[in-house]
Amino acid sequence: MKSDLFSSEHMAQQASVPGMTLQNAKSIKYTVNGEMHARQGAMIAYRGGLEFERKGQGMGGMLKRAMTGEGLPLMAVRGQGEAWFAHEAQNCFIVDVEPGDMLTVNGRNVLCFDATLSYEIKTVKGAGITGGGLFNSVFTGSGRLGLVCEGNPLVIPVTPQQPVYVDTDAVVGWTADLATTLHRSQSIGSMIRGGSGEAVQLMLRGEGYVIVRPSEVTPQKPQQH
Question: What is this structure's pTM?
Fold first, then answer.
């Protein structure tokens, strides 16, 4: 059988290195030798001796969505083999987290990560006035973190002289040394007169980077369990 479909561009190869690698722009390949973690429902294929187990639905088994407080269930993958992960054909990116690093990420953008990484659910500082508060997952330790994003993300440098204001529905994450507060940019009157409606943004100050997706609202789909 002959087709461009069977070209090396699309063909899965035997793993040459353990751990996480990009299979292509839309999927991540993980060569498992022990244990790793991923969002439930994100595994699209695997081979080898792997077992998949839902993590408990307590705080340790959930990553909070940054702006809604909804939970993102996680699963543990154990054994020896290869697994591929993707989510709704979104673009995939790999972040190397090193000792001393700290990355705050919206739970909806997490695809998979090394078991050597620690994660903690925290309330976004300065955002307690909104209903339920704003929650993000903070990753520390040493390992690789696989992220997904609708479209190509925009990474904006933040400096003490130039704070950055981001839509709360569009923010993917930010680096550790940034302070956050909510910022109101419009009065109710200006919104009634036909303003943009962007009444509240998340303001980030300090030295670092903020990651933003080129999309504000995602239609809610039933969570796969």
Answer: 0.81
Does 116 have pLDDT greater than 70? yes
Residues 207-216 have pLDDT tens digits of 999 999 997 6
Q: What angle do CA 62, 89, 31 make, to 5 degrees?
A: 65
Q: Which residue has the tokens 């998949």?
A: 52
Whether the per-residue pLDDT at 110 is higher than 60: the answer is yes
For residues 184 and 130, give the distance between their C-alpha atoms in angstroms, rounded to a whole number. 12
E strands along the chain, which residues? 19-24, 27-39, 43-54, 62-64, 71-85, 91-97, 102-105, 110-114, 117-123, 135-141, 143-149, 154-158, 164-167, 171-175, 178-184, 200-206, 208-212
**Which one, of 123, 90, 97, 128, lies nearest residue 218 by Cα?**
90
pLDDT confidence bin for 129, thresholds 50/70/90:
very low
Pairing of strands 135-141, 117-123: antiparallel
Instruction: Name every residue whose Cβ is closer than 8 Å to that of residue 168 and which is 6 or more positions away in sequence.
Output: 66, 67, 134, 200, 201, 202
Start-to-end CA distance of the chain, whole Å, equals 37
Cα distance between residue 163 and residue 1, in whole Å? 57
